[in-house]
Design the sequence.
């Protein structure tokens, strides 16, 4: 017999498939377990863990099932069939909320153009104001300029210097 | 015929019954399978089916849904129950088929990552029995549970199913073979490999503590 139980021997003992109690193999295994604390401890530890897993699973599943029984009328709302829809709706809301901000940032990638835009109106502000003032005067005039009577041509010729007279 | 392993039967079994009560009332009651008295079957086995699915999926919402589907499918296909296996074995076979179909989808894998109903070991550890009243023993038990919980998560799907059927549901190897449709030798082989992984985790933990 080896110094310790083989993996198969240990598994057979855990699986309750050890040799027949009257066989010599069973007697050898029992004799080894009595004399080998390492194998005894490992076997006990594994059995203890497996028992613990079963007891804990039983207790937890019993409580969860009781909760489902208590909340049976609302169970359909919390069912997994609806959860993807709820998650999808939440994702769409999140996208709809963040998309405008991301597009806004995408269209203004750098700060330099904005400063250029900020400086340009300073240069053109005076001409813009003059243009607006001219428009205001046009609008406030009682007679639009295209409909105003033409000036007297004779008066203009009399007042103008005789630069146009022929010097023949 | 089948073993109950000392599980206490839940007195309340309304969710699974409510899901199929309309079907029951609208159909013929003249057949003679055990599943004709579905209320009794649900009362006896809902706890076990739910436990198997809960430990397998680690998601109580999915486990609850699949448990209801298991009993519904068992009742719908009750004519095919030949009583060549126990009721619990037949139910576990149906539950396992549903579990395979469900976990095979990409949708399950995606939602499992973000599921609020996922079971964590801290939730489960609240149910560690307090036979040992000392704080040291409770800490050791918690560490043991963490180890085996992680080790079971490392198993392959098939190894995990067989492991749970044996050590949580305490089915015999022949019952596991019927449930999974595998030869007994293959079942044993999967159990040996699964136990090797569990042993390795235990051994590494012992070395860390020493």
Sequence:
């Amino acid at each position: 017999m080896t110094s310790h139980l083989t993996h198969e021997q240990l598994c057979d003992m855990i699986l309750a498939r050890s040799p027949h109690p009257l066989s010599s193999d069973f007697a050898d295994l029992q004799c080894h377990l009595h004399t080998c604390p390492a194998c005894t401890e490992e076997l006990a530890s594994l059995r203890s863990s497996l028992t613990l897993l079963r007891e804990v699973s039983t207790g937890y599943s019993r409580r969860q099932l009781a909760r489902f029984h208590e909340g049976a009328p609302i169970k359909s709302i919390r069912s997994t069939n609806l959860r993807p829809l709820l998650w999808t709706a939440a994702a769409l809301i999140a996208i709809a909320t963040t998309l405008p901000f991301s597009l806004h940032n995408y269209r203004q990638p750098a700060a330099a153009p904005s400063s250029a835009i900020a400086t340009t109106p300073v240069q053109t502000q005076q001409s813009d104001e003059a243009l607006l003032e001219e428009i205001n005067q046009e609008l406030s005039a009682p007679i639009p300029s295209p409909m105003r009577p033409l000036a007297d041509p004779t008066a203009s010729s009399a007042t103008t210097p005789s630069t146009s007279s022929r010097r023949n | 015929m089948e073993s109950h392993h000392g599980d206490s039967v839940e007195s309340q079994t309304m969710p699974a019954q409510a899901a199929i009560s309309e079907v029951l009332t609208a159909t013929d009651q003249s057949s003679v399978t055990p599943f004709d008295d579905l209320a009794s079957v649900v009362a006896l086995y809902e706890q076990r089916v739910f436990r198997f699915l809960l430990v397998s999926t680690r998601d109580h919402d999915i486990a609850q849904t699949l448990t209801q589907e298991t009993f519904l499918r068992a009742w719908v296909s009750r004519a095919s129950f030949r009583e060549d296996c126990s009721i619990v074995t037949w139910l576990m076979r149906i539950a396992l088929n549903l579990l395979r179909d469900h976990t095979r989808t990409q949708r399950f894998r995606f939602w499992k990552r973000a599921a609020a109903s996922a079971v964590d070991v801290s939730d489960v550890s609240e149910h560690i029995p307090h036979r040992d009243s000392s704080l040291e023993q409770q800490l050791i038990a918690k560490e043991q549970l963490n180890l085996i919980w992680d080790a079971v998560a490392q198993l392959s799907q098939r190894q995990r199913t067989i492991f749970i059927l044996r050590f949580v549901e305490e089915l015999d190897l022949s019952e596991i073979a019927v449930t999974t449709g595998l030869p007994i030798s293959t079942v044993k082989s999967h159990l040996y490999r699964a136990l090797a992984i569990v042993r390795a985790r235990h051994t590494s933990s012992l070395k860390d503590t020493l």
Summary: Residues 37-70 of chain A form the longest helix (34 residues).
